[in-house]
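ingest -> validate -> predict -> emit
validate: passed (alphabet ok, no gaps, 287 aa)
predict: started
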Amino acid sequence: MIALTPEAAERGYNNRAAVPDHPRWLARCAELSAAAMASLAPRRDVRYGPNPKETLDLFLPATPARGTLAFIHGGYWRTLDKADFAFVATPFVAQGYAVANINYDLCPAVTLATIVDECRRAVAWLAREGSRNGAPAPLVLAGHSAGGHLVAMMYATDWRALGLPAEPFAGGVSLSGVHDLAPLLATTINADLRLTPADAQGLSPVNLAPTVAVPLFVAVGADETSEFVRQSHLLFEAWPARRPRGAPAALEIPGRHHFNVVADYADGEAEITRRTLALFAPPAVDN
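emit:
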């Protein structure tokens, strides 16, 4: 763990300041998502839990699905919506997979601990109800930014205590995830998150033991801030037994910053898409 001054923490975690043309990329993602919504006609707002935003959109292929990708969006747990990332479904549906685009309630209306529990309910719903709703196993999880953190937290969950098999999903992707929350305590972001030091300790995947023995692919844009690059390598080193076999390090994707790295999910030939698809028939993890 390293100690950052408030100024250094703000530079390291304020992605919009780090990418001056981020509005262009947010607009591009909105455009891609509108096209995906129009062409794929998902089942909107399928409820998986009791809280207001505990819903997901189901994108289904024309023929019975080969498996399901569950995508968890970013936005520092306080902004954005599943609809902003509908474009993620496009290449996976084209390959015959269902996609469940997950929403969750946002800080400061709820705590980060509540959001983690909501995502657990979403995964549990997909494990129990996905097949009868056209979204069968194998289930692969993927998340960007805050969503990457939430995917990692799913690996540190006792699923048997929730009445499920110990491994209800086959693999996961943390793209540009925040895996040690302690540096956020010194940022303006925490005005909405309201994390205490104890919260940051207990909700940081690097401080937890993974309970799910399936591969976790960790990636980040090579042009992201040094803190986001460090965060990805941190999880990769903390959980060595979850590495997909042959992965020597967390992947740094060349020429990508925090906003265009997730836009790559619209491209079926992009490395992040191909690596995610590979998790549906994963090789063994390194031990």
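The domain at 6-278 is CATH 3.40.50.1820 (Rossmann fold).
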